[in-house]
Amino acid sequence: MSNISVRQISIVNPIKAVGKTFTGDYSQSFAYIKEVQALLDALSVKWIPNKVLGIYYDHPAEKKPEDLRSFQGVFTEHDQAILTGTLSILELKGSFLYTKVSGDPTQAISDGYAALFEYIGQHSLQLKSNAGIQIVTFEEGIIQTEIYLEL
């Protein structure tokens, strides 16, 4: 874990994703993403393959899997209005604690959060929210996960 770099960043130009809030087991995130992609396909909105966003609002150890809340989204090729009440646009901007990890998501994400919380403890930081924000990209056989915690 010591090789995981953690830093404080400020996002001025918002990172925008289109998606939907879901209630249910986090292990179903892939199915939730597929649902968002299908809704965008029905609207003829092009989305970027192999790049997704997930915001996980609840700690899995504190709630039943069926009660876990998350926002699952994708990135569109162009800024465009999404004319549906089902989907919403989420903008990520402000101050965040940030790390980027690679490899098997189960282990890499766990290591990433451990590094973030170690940093929080060392620097006596206060989070604005307990939500964990993850942007996952799959390119050339490598899974990279960016993790953001809002300060």
TrEMBL record:
Residues 12-131 form the GyrI-like small molecule binding domain. Pfam families: GyrI-like (PF06445). Gene3D superfamilies: Regulatory factor, effector binding domain. SUPFAM superfamilies: Probable bacterial effector-binding domain. This is GyrI-like small molecule binding domain-containing protein.
